[in-house]
What does this fold into?
Amino acid sequence: MGKIRIFPIVSGGTGFYIKALCQGLFRSDPVDAGIRNRLKLEAEQKGPGPLFLRLKEVDPETAGILHPHDTYRILRALEVYETLGIPISRVRQSHGFADEPYEVLKIGLDMDRDLLYDRIDLRVDAMLEDGLEAEVRGLLEKGYSRAMKSMQTIGYRHMAEYIEGDISREEMIRTLKRDSRRYAKRQLTWFRKDGAVNWVKAGNLDGILNLVKASNFSR
It folds into this structure.
């Protein structure tokens, strides 16, 4: 019996996740524990806003792909900068993500921007109808803090702000849809810079099949 060839299919995921999956993660020197603790304390006392503004000054490239409320990644970027004296974006560039242990076929689905944004708005409406509020209320009642990384993600953060009275329901829905669209735009910007992505119009199944047939996977 010949060897069995396995072709995993990965759908979705952030741009950085896909790059790390295909090419590995960079390794950096250990960060200074004192710097990490000081930054974490500052985030707890003042929130991520001032830290994000500092990151924009020292590493605008990294700040440009992060959400202003992504406390975990903002802290990581700043602690690397303060420990090594260079931006984390430059550390990643030195790595180059040059390792290519796998043969990969990347396919990106291209869609009209207005249609994409309409679908994002509809998805938010569906999330609300499917019980997002009840889910977040349950997490808060169980003691999960809004400061947790998992609670800072789009949807959870907005709903928690509404539940705890920081914003109105109308504002929660508006900002949730807005931030979801902005996130999609940042992801498109990331993937557009990846020359290995083969762009196909969404729904063009023949185009996708042709790409697969032309690749080494079909041989």
In short: The chain has a mean pLDDT of 86. The first helix runs from residue 15 to 23.
